[in-house]
């Protein structure tokens, strides 16, 4: 297939481009050329908000829109495209209001989420535009993505703490549940959609099983053969000051995804792959001042 991937320079979009190029597809990436490009892809160097006729000379079998965040993003891209086949938009679980009963299902009414704010409402606006103008588009709603090429300070932060042999500070009692999805599984599911073309258009995606914070930290430390010394922090300390995730527990119902892709990577295996990438590319991590806050306020 001839495939267009938006972005293609960091984490989800870069992994997606390299995944499909590795499968033998003719992959094009659309970005401004401000970062090094992946090998084995074709670079369309352009500002996505000023594309003109840049894309109309191509007929893409699939458009994998990994980097759109709002209605304007999807609208300007689609208006700039010529003819294309399938369209897949990576949305977010943030489109579900936190007040809904859990697990969240695809048929629930979406709306504002007070935790995610504008990020969620902007993703929902993008979804709504696609539903009206590109009704054949697939919309995927993942939880926390992780894995190789993740430059966000999430599992990388825990890896750093494990390497430094320092205690790990856990919110409250560590029982808050987290749901993850490996970037490789996201790509596998997109691949299945392009082949099978199911009638359902909106899918929650993610690991069927959740883990609590304690389990997640132990798995991250276990990747390098260490056991964490867990220290628990009271609710009076803002969680995001010392921990990578919001104080927000949610679960997605991924029954429809599992019917198409029954097997997903175990969290342990996925974290091992994440650490292999991190150990070589730790300089690419976008760090937050979590360590500084811990040193100044918790130790």
List keywords for this structure.
299 residues, alpha/beta, Rossmann fold, UDP-galactose 4-epimerase, domain 1, 7-stranded parallel sheet, two-stranded parallel sheet, 9 helices, globular
Give an overview in words.
- This protein is α/β, with parallel strands linked by helices.
- It has helices at 11-22, 71-80, 118-133, 155-163, 183-196, 213-222, 255-260, 267-281, 290-297, and strands at residues 2-6, 26-31, 42-45, 60-65, 84-90, 138-141, 144-146, 168-171, 177-178, 180-182, 202-204, 211-212, 230-233.
- The protein has two domains: 2-146 and 182-204, Rossmann fold (3-Layer(aba) Sandwich); 155-179 and 209-250 and 265-297, Alpha-Beta Complex (UDP-galactose 4-epimerase, domain 1), CATH 3.90.25.10.
- The chain contains nine helices and 13 strands.
- Strand 1, helix 1 and strand 2 form a beta-alpha-beta unit.
- The protein starts with a strand and ends with a helix.
Structural class: alpha/beta
Largest sheet: 7 strands, parallel
Tally of discrete structural domains: 2
| Shape, principal axes of CA atoms | globular
List low-confidence stretches.
Answer: none
Query: Quick one: how many beta strands?
Result: 13
Which whole number gives the mean pLDDT?
Answer: 97
The CATH topology of the largest domain comes to Rossmann fold
Strand order of the largest sheet: 3-2-1-4-5-6-11
User: What's the Cα radius of gyration?
Assistant: 20 Å
CATH first level of the largest domain: which class? Alpha Beta
CATH 4th-level superfamily of the largest domain: NAD(P)-binding Rossmann-like Domain
Portion of residues in beta strands equals 15-25%
Work out the helix count. 9
- Helix proportion: 25-40%
Q: CA-to-CA gap between the ends? A: 54 Å
> What's the architecture of the largest domain, going by CATH?
3-Layer(aba) Sandwich
Order of helices and strands: EHEEEHEHEEHEEEHEEHEHHH
